[in-house]
Design goal:
Largest sheet: 6 strands, parallel
Radius of gyration: 28 Å
Mean pLDDT: 78
Strand order of the largest sheet: 3-2-1-4-5-6
Strand content: under 5%
Number of helices: 25
Shape: elongated
């Protein structure tokens, strides 16, 4: 019987690891999640990102450390499933429309900087004594930056709409797509390392010819999946959406991710590649924003499982033995990636300050780096793989720390002239976020400068103060309005805004309505207004007003709370069926609430009495 310690967390870990002779899948999951939670909380206490904390948590419970994970096979199954689903969610967030402006330049920055980084780091690792195949895999892995960390930095610093934020996200998308190519050639590198073909050769063909043939067949299978996906997925999800059950879309999408992973594994590629491509295909459908929001909580859990599972491969003894090499490699990755990405962006037309910030934000390794390391595990020895994971951990810790100083350094580069090689302005212009209410930014900043509890109290008051600035008469064309729900009320509002030439976005959960209105030229998004991803896509952060016309009190209250959390300054108009709903909506932050029973009473009083008077006059009474 295990000894129960005073602190409950270690007690749980000891019980889970010691009392079960053959540690079960559930016990391994318990140890991973509890340790990840504790370490992540400690990291956040010191204002460090939680992702490196998950990697450290895995290293703590690894068989080579405390040995709390005894069933390595179960832990690997957990990590593998988490990896597949995580790659699916990453693919789901690939938004090519964000690169439409300046796409050629952004793609050039991403491709050139990534490939040059691979070449330079390959040379560095060769100089450090790493064999050529292993050095190439390490260089490819290190060249891919972390999308998760980048998005967190941009959101925390409110830089998603900034010049460097837009370019960094575009480069990150390019790197994610390049990582699919890297995954496809990892088996070739493995065969190179062994000096043999990847599988048995077809009769009568030399090794090089059989390798080309297998590559062509596997690539054909990928193109077939992409073609069928583009053709069938929108129709399949549209049919599921007509059943008016958001859970079904989630379940069908997850099944498609696993099916795609099984298919790419069958044709000779990694299952992670198939899951990523499935998400990428779904990102091209009208349902992507709703799905991204539904998968958001699962994505956070998958991040914890994935990174903790990767940390299990860290062997502290080997790491200490190669500590000097790890530190050198970490500095080399950060410095070289920052310089190469920043220099490429500058040459392609970015200003020097923005190019530097983009380079710093992309100066790490990331989640796809770890997937590539796992895919190339047969080529890497345990010491190389463990050291590479340690480098990833250190770069992920360093990037958020370097974000602030990079802005200070960037201000000193404002006097540098623009690039002489590329004269285009697409990477020099600001993102151009639509203007918001007058003084709204100052109001938001005043809230941020207050203590958290006071800011929460002032949020609703400030929203009401700003709401009076929304004009009652004709609206300026620069206004950005969101209409949630496109029933009779939403249609009436849209018609009024059309007359007033005001820009608006409609959010609707009826797939038929979305398709019909989109074909008529209206800007409309499929999704639930309380879904964070849908709100982001609709432009909640720069919206002047949001009109929630959904005929469901519970849905309205959830929506009001979600909108107010996302934007403390926006004007929120809502509808409820009863007076009690109005009180609840106002408490949650609504600026104006129309009560259906009161509106019906007022309308009936006016309309019925008018009709009655006309009836009397017609009869001469």
């Amino acid at each position: 019987m295990a000894v129960v310690l005073c602190w409950p967390v270690p007690s749980l870990l000891v019980i889970a690891s010691a009392e079960i002779p053959e540690q079960s899948f559930a016990a391994a999951m318990l140890i991973i999640l509890v340790t990840a939670a504790v370490v992540a909380v400690v990291f956040r206490k010191f204002r460090l990102d939680s992702i490196p904390g998950y990697l450290v948590a895995g290293a703590i419970v690894a068989p080579a450390s405390l040995g709390l994970i005894k069933n390595v096979e179960a832990a690997e199954q957990i990590s593998h499933l988490a990896t597949i689903l995580l790659m699916f969610t990453i693919g789901l967030h690939i938004d090519l429309s964000s690169m439409q402006r300046g796409m050629v330049h952004i793609v050039a920055v991403g491709v050139i900087s990534t490939l040059v980084t691979v070449g330079v780091l390959w040379s560095v690792f060769l100089l450090m004594g790493v064999p050529r195949p292993a050095a190439l895999i390490l260089a490819m892995a290190a060249s891919i930056s972390s999308t998760a960390v980048l998005v967190r930095i941009l959101m925390n610093r409110r830089e998603l709409q900034s010049q460097h934020g837009r370019v960094s996200l575009g480069v990150s998308i390019v790197q994610d797509l390049l990582s699919v190519v890297f995954l496809a050639i990892v088996p070739v590198i493995g065969a190179w390392a062994k000096g043999t073909a990847t599988t048995s050769e077809p009769a009568g063909l030399p090794p090089w010819a059989s390798g080309i043939l297998r590559g062509l067949l596997a690539s054909s299978g990928v193109f077939l999946m992409l073609w069928l996906g583009r053709l069938l997925l929108p129709r399949l999800l549209a049919g599921v959406a007509r059943l008016a059950n958001a859970e079904l879309i989630l379940i069908v999408s997850a099944a498609l991710a696993l099916l795609s992973a099984a298919w790419t594994s069958f044709i000779g590629f990694s299952p992670e590649m198939g899951a990523f491509l499935a998400g990428f295909l779904l990102a091209g459908t009208p349902f992507r924003y709703q799905l991204a929001g539904q998968f958001a909580p699962l994505r956070d859990l998958l991040l914890a499982l994935f990174f903790t599972g990767v940390g299990l491969n860290v062997v502290p003894g080997d790491l200490l033995q190669h500590l000097t090499a790890v530190l050198i490699a970490t500095v080399a990755v950060i410095v070289l990636k920052t310089l190469l990405t920043g220099l490429t962006a500058y040459i392609m037309g970015m200003t020097a300050p923005s190019a530097l910030i983009s380079g710093v934000y992309m100066g790490n390794a990331g989640e796809f780096s770890l997937v590539l390391l796992a895919a190339g595990a047969a080529t890497l020895n345990p010491a190389e793989k463990g050291s590479a994971i340690a480098v990833v951990i250190l770069t992920l810790i360093a990037t958020p720390v370097l974000a602030g100083p990079s802005h200070s350094l960037a201000t000193r580069l404002r006097t540098l002239p623009l690039s002489r090689w590329v004269r285009g302005t697409v990477l020099r212009d600001a993102a151009g976020a639509p203007p918001s209410l007058p003084h709204a930014q100052n109001a938001l900043q005043s809230l941020e400068d207050q203590p958290a509890e006071r800011a929460a109290e002032r949020a609703a008051e400030r929203a009401a103060e700003l709401a009076v600035q929304v004009p009652v008469g004709p609206m300026a064309a620069s206004r950005h309005i969101i209409i949630a729900g496109f029933g009779p009320v939403g249609r009436a509002l849209a018609d009024r805004f059309d007359i007033q030439k005001a820009a608006y976005v409609v959010v609707e959960l009826n797939a038929k309505t979305v398709n019909r209105q989109a074909s008529l030229g209206r800007t409309i998004i499929f999704g639930d207004i309380s879904n964070h991803e849908v709100l982001e896509r609709a432009g909640v952060h720069h919206a002047d007003a949001i009109f929630i016309t959904v005929p469901d009190d519970e849905a309205v209250l959830h929506a009001v709370q979600a909108v107010r959390d996302a934007n403390p300054r926006v004007f929120i108009a809502a509808r409820t069926k009863f007076l009690s709903g109005k009180v609840a909506a106002l408490t949650l932050g609504a600026s104006s609430v129309t009560v259906e029973e009161v509106a019906t009473a007022t309308a009936m009083e006016r309309e019925s009495l008018d009709a009655f008077h006309r009836w009397l006059e017609a009869r001469g009474v």
